[in-house]
Amino acid sequence: MLLQTKNQLCKERRRLSIEKKPIIFAIETSCDETAVSILKGHNELLSNLVVSQIDIHKDFGGVVPEIAARKHVEFLYQLSLKAFEEAQIEPTQLNAIAVSYGPGLIGSLLIGTSFAKGMSISLNIPLIGVNHLVGHIYANFLDFPELKPPFVTLLVSGGHTMILLVKDYFDFEIIGETRDDAAGEAFDKVARILNLEYPGGPIIDQIAKSGKSIYKFPKPLYNVGYDFSFSGLKTAVLYFVKDSRKAKIEDIAASFQEAIIDTLVHKVTKYALKSGIKDVVIAGGVASNSLLRKKLNTYRDELNIYYPQLKYCTDNAAMIARAAYEKYQRNMFDDLDLDVEPNLGLSKV
Asked: Model's pTM, two decimal places?
């Protein structure tokens, strides 16, 4: 089928703008999860499927980009067929195709965007590119449809750690961010120091439950502004492990986790209370950390704390679909020359 002309696309967009409950097919392949989702309206999830590659990459101690991309090629088509079967709809019923175009691994992103463009062309429906970071924020809207800006967000994952002021649906101000390692990255690196498997965050969270936080690891920048720094904490754990071979791994894990979580909670609640914005949204893979949730819950008398279900914390396509829904409502469509951006920040949504 020939590419849409500008006039055809404009007509299509005008038609879509009056749809009450658009059906959006979303693709997420920014790293090592192959995910697809079908969303009707703002919160009717018809299908949400994820194939994880953790068992493949854990032998390497981290994600191997070329392997991740090849697996996306292997999984994406069959997963899409399964999604339509589960949703009990036909591709011709879709109103738009959404895909994460960055940040992430370039090879993985290219697989997803190429597949999305092919669907857009064959079905003659618009393409919506979604910033992966924005997707994580929008995961909360799936569980809390009443949530509205402005609110404060702690976005914390393997690649990013930042405090954001969400002024409007696509208007973000970065209040603070990491100067070196992201929180999730620090978890993975400390897990390797402790000879634990990848990914480190869930494993440290689990074994820390049977340990005691008895070691006082540093909390860099704890009382300085809203930026983060976890490289020094990671190094402190490294030297401690070398010098204290009799220390229990559970106690080291618990002490490290408390240092990092205390810092995250302190800074985001400090900003929220100072700003007077009571709604605090937690997003990203580390949002699933049990200690983070426990400590944030102690502020519920002062703040409204939101965090998504565990299945929406890690990479998934439902969050991409939910962010795409808001772009759809605003006619924020992309041309077929949409390019992937591995280092995409929040300056582009």
From this structure: 0.92
